[in-house]
Amino acid sequence: MVRREGRSVYNKLYELTAELLGQVLFLSSVFVDVRNQLSITSQQSTLLVTSVSGHLMEQCFGPEMKNWMTVPIGSLFDAPVYTVVPESMNNIARTLIEQSKKCDVLVIWTDCDREGESIGAEIAKVCLESNRRMDVYRAKLDQNTVDAVECRSELDLRIGAAFTRLQTLHLQQKFSSLLCTDGMRSFLSGGKQVVSYGSCQFPTLGFVVDRYKSIENFVSEMFWKLSVEHNREGKKVCCFMFSYNPPPKSVVY
Predict the structure, then answer these.
(1) What are the CA-CA distances from residue 26 to residues 88, 106, 138 (Å)?
(2) Does residue 153 lie within any of the structural domains?
(3) What are the φ/ψ torsions at residue 25 (nearest 5 degrees)?
(4) What's the pTM value of the predicted model, to 2 decimals?
(5) Which of 148, 121, 146, 147 lies closest to 29, judged by CA?
(6) N or C, where is the chain less crowded by C-beta within 10 Å?
(7) DSSP string, 21-50
(8) How many Cβ atoms from other residues are within 10 Å of residue 197's Cβ?
């Protein structure tokens, strides 16, 4: 096996030659729900193995939706959403595109969960851009799960963007000194002081606030311990330590 560098320093390329035997059940296409068996009969093949770092793509609005002051917040729920490769994933995508040109078959082995299904579909889309003739197989694929993840991602974008803008613009008017001394001009010029909202971020913030309050409201208690020493001829012979574990407190939620 030979290890080579990819475009990303974190995602290496491993090349090996192996004899593939047997018959494995795959999904013949990541876009059509048709099951097929990839039959391999004692064939020497060159295998190229690499990895990705999570999702290759993300959803975003078009540039016409960027202006917070002129775009109605309600329009964020109906505006077109685009799926793009973010700059942070460009090197990984370039590696996949370059290596796909040399391959005849793509086999996806991402996790068999919601996010893994979606990531696998993203990998296939990127690779097929450079090699449309390549056959794409998947150890397991559920298009319904892929659609569910993409729906979740779109909801995160729409709800997060809408409520972040609503909260920031509303609270900026009420408490301008706390957010931006020069109003939204500070935000638009790069001083991004926002009151953000996210479907995961918001409940996580609640956990942090609850913990902060419990620390701030903590009331210290006095504790004692028993220690017995035995001395003989003025020298300590042994020490007896008493250990006590108080019963857990009952908490009602």
Answers:
(1) 31, 11, 5
(2) yes
(3) -85, 120
(4) 0.58
(5) 121
(6) C
(7) -SEEEEES-SSS--EEEEE--SEEEEEEE-
(8) 18
What pLDDT tens digit does each residue of the chain (253 aa) get? 899 999 999 999 999 887 765 444 444 444 444 444 455 555 678 889 999 999 999 999 999 999 999 999 999 999 999 999 999 999 999 999 999 999 998 989 898 888 998 999 999 999 999 999 988 888 766 778 888 888 989 999 999 999 999 988 888 888 766 555 554 454 444 456 788 888 888 889 899 999 999 999 999 888 777 778 888 887 877 877 777 676 666 544 4
> Considering the domain boundaries, does residue 43 fall inside one?
yes
In a domain, 244, yes or no: no
Confirm whether 222 is domain-assigned: no
Going from the C-alpha of 72 to that of each of 65, 158, 165, 183, the distances in angstroms are 9, 13, 10, 18
**What are the structure tokens assigned to 47, written together?**
């295998």
Q: What is the C-alpha separation between 120 and 55, in angstroms, rounded? A: 9
The SS3 assignment for 9 reads coil
Give the C-alpha separation, 242 to 230, whole Å.
14
Q: Which CATH number is 200's domain given?
A: 3.40.50.140
The domain containing residue 92 runs over which residues? 2-216
How far from 34 is each of 29, 30, 93, 127, CA to CA, in Å? 7, 9, 27, 20
Split into its structural domains, the chain has a count of 1
pLDDT value for 29: 45
Structure tokens at 244: 């006590």
